[in-house]
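In keeping with the milestone schedule agreed at the kick-off meeting, the structural modelling team has produced records for the first pair of proteins. Each record is given below as a sequence line and a structure-token line. The laboratory manager (R.T.) confirmed that both were archived under the project's standard naming scheme.
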Amino acid sequence: MSTVAIIETTRMLISLIGELQTLSVSQNYPQKTHDRVVLALRTIYFTSDGVIKIMEDIANGGMPDTDVIREVLPPFNDAEWKVHDELKFLESKKLQKSFNITLKDSRILREIAYGKRNLRHFIQDTLNEALTLGNDVNREDVNLAVKAVKALNTSIEKIEAVYNRRAPK
């Protein structure tokens, strides 16, 4: 993924945060639809103890400890199929055409999926090449990716809070 693509992804994800301020989901939609969206969002969320920790170390000029890499990178790579399935669901025509979510929600979910897909590929390429092949890392690109991940996570948290009717408000 190029620097331009990272910048565009970051901008798109940051702009989503503002849009999510006005999001409200009808309580008339079936709980099953809400639960399925919540599950997908939780699956694609970048946890603070995962690869983002390694990315932040690199962005700050450090090199992560080998034990941390061994602990974090394989599960990240192994989760590819599960993340892919959830991204497919969020981008699906079935969800887009469903009357159980609004067109705006459908568009936002697709944009979140697009951002996750781009960031995931960038992180996989960057970390796998740098940490297993010893290739140099562009710290500015990594720093942009960290900002994009934080914007993505904020977007996921905001829309998940609206869809998750079971969680206390």
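The second protein of the pair:
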Amino acid sequence: MDRMRAKDRVRAILDGKDAGTPLFAPLACAVAATVEALDVRGFLRNTTKMTKGLQALSEAIESDAIVCCCPSAMEAEAVGAILDWSTYPPRVVDPPDLMFPRSGASSKWEELVEEGVERMLLKAPRIEAAIETIRRLGITKPGGRALIAALTGPATLAGQLVGASFWEGIDAEQGNCVAALEASGRIAIEFARLVSEAGADAVILVEERLPRAGGSGVEEWRSVVIPAAKVVRFYRVLPMVLVKELTDEHRSGWGDDPLDGALICLRDGRKEVGSMVRPYATALPVAASAWVLESDFDPGCFVTTAGEISPTEKIPDLRSASQKVRTALAAHTSGSSRNRVGGL
């Protein structure tokens, strides 16, 4: 089973079959700029450089996948947010004006919807480059590696569009915050569809945090994430959700299949998410120096990182750390009963 191509192993997970040794796919994208000797911002807008650099990076660090994009405020930028590029990932410093007014007046978002969400996304240089990179790599299929698109989750995107007040506002069911989450869900669905059509094998929605456990906000979040997962599965692509701050309160409140088949990434290797008996993934720390798998650690069927690897990481260090993880995964007894139950 372990001789299967990574692309086929992702498909096996999607179909609820034993994929053998867990896949290892750290979220390494911008660090490939060093391969092409470009600054990160220029690299992420250059399809030719991305195609070459990402392929070379995945080979160098022995990843099972090529990560073609990572959450870096691409979606917020596409709808008019101003970003600060003094650090990476860039952060939103000026959300779009009048995106979700409390008064209920006509908003800029409604104007953008009339223009078309797909067109809006494809006008953004980094999004356009990421989609075309996936398309090109999907044609060449380098080394049978899986192609991954990691996108900004709708709650995180809504927080970028509204600002820090979003998190209290969504828990209080404020109209502008609910509208922002619904709009962010629509953007996530459309972006997920575009990368799936382009040839991605897995789509990861990455959330910094979630609305308060037990509140209506987290149910609003589920109501926009589940349709995104369904769209991805329609294209025979693996939907995944990574929450950097997934609390025990969130986990205990979830049932057997909390996100309608999306593969949930856990940060600590614990299988128990409520009463969930499903395939799951594990997210290691972002820093390669912290990639340690203890003997009793259960990685699930897929191992990634809890965020994008810093562009300042040295590729030889990533390769060394990656080799240790792969050795540990190969030694791990795969195909436990929990990772054989049910298809996605």
